[in-house]
Amino acid sequence: MKDIQKFLLSSQPPKARSSVERKKHLQKLKIIQSLYFQGPQTNTQICEEFNISSPTSIRLLNQLMDQNWVKKEGQGESAGGRKPDLYRLDKDMFYVMGIQLERSRLKIAIFDNHNKKVADFKDLFELETGDGLVDHIFEEANKLIETSGIDLDKLLGIGISMPGLVSSKEGRNFTYFIKEEESESLEDILERKFNKPIFILNDAKSACVAESNFGMATNRDNVLVISMDWGIGLGVIIDGKVYEGSSGFAGEFGHIPLVDDGQLCHCGKRGCLETVASGLALTRMAQEGIKAGESTSLNLLSEEDLKNLQPEKIIEAANMGDQFSINILSKVGINLGKGLAILIQLFNPELIILEGKFAKASQFITIPIQQSINTYCMAQLREKTKISLSNLGDDSVLLGSVATVMENIFGKQISLINNS
Ligand SMILES: [Zn+2]
């Protein structure tokens, strides 16, 4: 077995004999971290990133190659002359599991150390009911590990994203799973069951972490990531860092008051943004319209599909040209744009990334959002803000969970060395 797992999961600082050795250990750790998050790199890129000389970098890379943790493969761009070698992490060294809980679906996937998905599982799931959820997640995750055939020792940790008020620091969800964690935190329960490091976080934050590591927010300083799913989530990147707030709850954008005497929200308040701009609002509008006898292709759905109407079905109908679906998406977009106008005035972001189920509605959602922003935002601010659809696809939240696990694992090792 390769000892990369020990290298990354050690609970003790390295037994280095001298400060020079400690420094070398730290540099190797940081090179592995950089190759993990940014992919293959040339020696020149590594020298620039860590401000080290070429001989030093080559020496470290050679040592990492001797350990079979890094290998030379392929070539990078050259500014003229011979193309430089690319260094990358060796394959199959470690794996990370991402678990995504939605209101009505459970998604589990295992990613390798090149961030490629090697196994996944999807199932319908009721988050609201609460009973036995932890056991169910544990069972399905174990089944996936077994069928994937990966060595359990190589699984470094598990990241779990979920809706609700999630405190990553305390490892608790204050909206769901309340019954199950009367004395023990959700994170502790899962850690005890899985016997692996577990990190839980809010799903919108997870999408934001994914965008900042692998998506359009990479190397950008001031970005807002809007998750448009059943609820509306917000992740805020300020000065290149994902902003947490004092209790880790920053970004509860869906529950800002937007409508006077509006509909009752599932949070218990009235007139929240989510009551007029979310997957919940969209399906409610569709069901109301169908009841009122609107002519729409949604009428062709089975009774079962209509009862458990998913936002995806409405978005599909809009993309097929269904006028009613286009209209209600437009209403949602106008309302969401109003909310975004407030955010633009507050944060002056360079980019707003829209992700989640609604991203598939492309112009049917972006045009009304843009119209609303044009109406409600000061020109000087809105002109500086680009609105883009995420390019990470359906796995963005899972990728964010996985990135969070690795950020924490690297962060812990780096602080162990720095404090030793
Ligand atoms: Zn609310």
UniProtKB/TrEMBL annotation:
SUPFAM superfamilies: Actin-like ATPase domain, Winged helix' DNA-binding domain. It holds the Pfam family ROK. InterPro entries: ATPase_NBD, ROK, ROK_cs, WH-like_DNA-bd_sf, WH_DNA-bd_sf. PROSITE patterns: ROK. Gene3D superfamilies: 3.30.420.40, Winged helix-like DNA-binding domain superfamily/Winged helix DNA-binding domain. Belongs to the ROK (NagC/XylR) family. This is ROK family transcriptional regulator. It comes from Salinimicrobium tongyeongense. The lineage of its organism: Bacteria, Pseudomonadati, Bacteroidota, Flavobacteriia, Flavobacteriales.
